[in-house]
Amino acid sequence: MTRFGQRARLALSRWTPAGRRAAAAPDAPVEVQPGSNGHRGGWLHDLNGRLHLRQGHSGVGGVGANELATVAPEAGPSVPDDTQVLQVLDLAMRVGEVLLSSGEGVAETTETMLRLADAGGLPTCEVDITFTSMTMSCHRGMVAPPVTTMRLVRYRSMDLTRLTDVAMLVGRVEREELSFTEAATELDVINRARHPYPRWLTTAAWAGMAASVAVLLGGGPVAAVVAFGATGVIDRIGRLLNRYRLPLFFQQMCGALLATGITAVLLYFSLLPAGTRPSLVVAAALTVLLSGLSVVGAVRDAIDGFFLTAAGRAGEITMFSAGLLGGVVLVLKAALVFGVELSVAGPLPSSNLSLAVRAFAAGMTSGLFALAGYSPVRYLPSAAGTGAAAWLLYTLLQQAGFGPVVATGIAAIGLGTFSGLLHRFTGVPRLVITLGAITPLLPGLTAYQGFYQLAVSGVTDGLVTVMLALAIGLALAGGVALGEWLTTELRPATPLSAPGAGAK
Questions:
Q1: CA Rg value for the chain
Q2: What is the pLDDT of residues 387-416, one digit of tens each?
Q3: Nearest to 109 by CA among 430, 460, 396
């Protein structure tokens, strides 16, 4: 043993009980047990315990109190007890479930859950979200083991009123107007509440939306009426099939079958007057069916780096679009057997009057979609105005010589910027405005043209047109995401206030 080791062992032995007795009685021999240094727990264990007990005194064995404080390792963040941790995590998970099932992006859902956890005194939490599950963990350092919980998202239903109420609830918790116990009770009330509008009104809204799309595409009153009736039938049959838990893929196929089949039957029996443009009826119904797909959410998740959830949503969109394709192609093939051809309508004539009427129809399309999605009444004018302005910008860009993809992207950037500003200054969820406002820009007519070419003209032309529709959809989603991102650096979001104090 080196000289330094001998000195260190001699100095440390003075801290053992045997060493202290030897110091008190120098003539008495010191008995040191091999391997324990006079203590059952070992001399190092005894030294560590005495260092902790002597913290706060002026000095111990020549070592200052400040130096002793640095010897003990940090225990980690201070957190509430297990009951509080479980209560906060449960509320955050349930709020996240509502947001994710309503179509909110993963980044927004994660941020909301972390804000809620921080308001509950849990600043060291992690959230992991996939397409169908959420996991949240609270790290407690060396004080206690971490607490982790998981929840599956078993349903997906669009209720923009519920989404708005949950956003208001989170804001009240952050402002300490509600305790977590009261917030959990109120969240139960929100989840159990009925939809704000009766079912017949939402069916009428979907049907009215299809009629507005038919006018937007250049159809006349007859095309609007047929689109209204066909979409109303599709919605009621879809609700019936949903009760029997038919997979959504087959529900989308049935919707496309009905939209194309009803139009083909009316055309076969010459029930449509000349110049009706039956393809616009089918395109209007397809636009309604496409509006329920989370294209914006999928692209936004991919841009934000949540590739797993983006891939899941992209797969869902692909399957549902394949259902639409299968339904349309089946009916078109059958119609050709009976000599009925649902050819795509030609280019639309342009005039100032038709532009104003179609801009009004675009606003009605957005507002009726928001109504069908159970949006609060006070936000319906915002959704309608944003949709009309976005479509008008898109049309002016096309008249200036821009292609459909570029024009759609630029209009979507303006749309996303407005919805982002509204969210930053009033706290209204972006989806309440965005989902309805993008509807007039959906490529329903382009998609139908591609389906028709696949069934009649040829695979090559059809694939090119379908890819064009896909490019328009991606430009729409990417533009909205970029516009919302441009507003993130303005100032912190204002918590959503009560209807009487906030935006009307």
A1: 33
A2: 999 999 999 999 999 999 999 999 999 999
A3: 430
